[in-house]
Every structure is written in structure tokens, then in C-alpha cells.
Automatic annotation (TrEMBL):
InterPro entries: AS_sf. This is Uncharacterized protein. SUPFAM superfamilies: Amidase signature (AS) enzymes. Gene3D superfamilies: Amidase signature (AS) domain. PANTHER family: AMIDASE (PTHR42678), AMIDASE C869.01 (PTHR42678:SF25). It comes from the Eukaryota. It comes from Dipteronia dyeriana.
Length: 131
């Protein structure tokens, strides 16, 4: 499968506030909120760096007043976390197919403006896209 990662379209600059979202954060917003943590979704990858970072962020949430319900058990987590079984993959592919051309046509600087352009580029530049 061949694909590009494309970013920086005109619309993204219109919806992101100047200076970012930090100005909208409220230090007291998490007080009294309950957050569940399902650990068995995160048991893969490089745990040497991921787990300590994850724990640090959980501590930050606790320090901000949130109640963290750790090791939450969900009986159907294997279905929920599987894109094929949950329907996530189908939804993602349908959404991609219906919106990719709208996204591409608004790119500020790009060699491609449609899915057809991407396919043609891939076919004409086989050695480049196969790297």
C-alpha cells in the first residue's frame, strides 16, 4: 500500500486560534471529574519510554483535581480496540474516500489536488514511492 501524509491546508489555518488552544485551558476544569484508564489498550510498543510518560500525565491529571479510575476493565475491549471488529476501519475508509478530494484541493502547496493525482503520481514515480 502506498500513501502520502499531507498537511497544512488553508482550512486548518482558519480553525486554529492564533497562539494555539492554551489560552482556553482552565486550571480548575478537571476538579471533580472522573477519568477511566483502560490499561490493556496500551500494552504494546516501547514501554521503556511510553509507560513513564503515561504515568506522568496521569499524575498531572490527579494533581489538577481529577479522580483517575485506574485499570478500568471493559469486557469487550478486544472488539473496541480492533478497527475491523469495531467498524472503525470501515468508517475511516468511507470518510477518507468522501473527503480526500476536498482536502487536497485546499492544500496551499502540493503536487496533487485529487486522489486521482495521487494515484497517477504513484504510478509515474514507482521508485520514489517504494522507498
Amino acid at each position: 500500500m502506498r500513501f502520502f501524509i499531507l498537511c497544512g491546508n488553508k482550512r486548518s489555518s482558519q480553525v486554529h486560534p492564533v497562539g494555539g488552544y492554551k489560552k482556553f485551558l482552565n486550571r480548575n476544569e478537571l476538579k471533580g471529574k472522573k477519568l477511566g484508564v483502560v490499561r490493556n489498550l496500551f500494552n504494546s510498543g516501547n514501554v521503556s519510554t511510553v509507560i513513564p510518560a503515561f504515568e506522568h500525565h496521569l499524575d498531572t491529571l490527579r494533581q489538577s483535581g481529577a479522580t483517575v479510575v485506574d485499570n478500568l476493565e471493559i469486557s469487550s475491549v478486544d472488539v473496541i480496540s480492533n478497527p475491523s471488529k469495531s467498524g472503525e476501519l470501515t468508517a475511516m475508509l468511507a470518510g477518507f474516500k468522501t473527503s480526500v478530494n476536498d482536502y487536497l484541493k485546499d492544500l496551499v502547496s502540493s503536487l496533487v489536488r485529487s486522489l486521482a493525482d495521487i494515484i497517477a503520481f504513484n504510478q509515474q514515480n514507482d521508485a520514489l514511492v517504494s522507498m
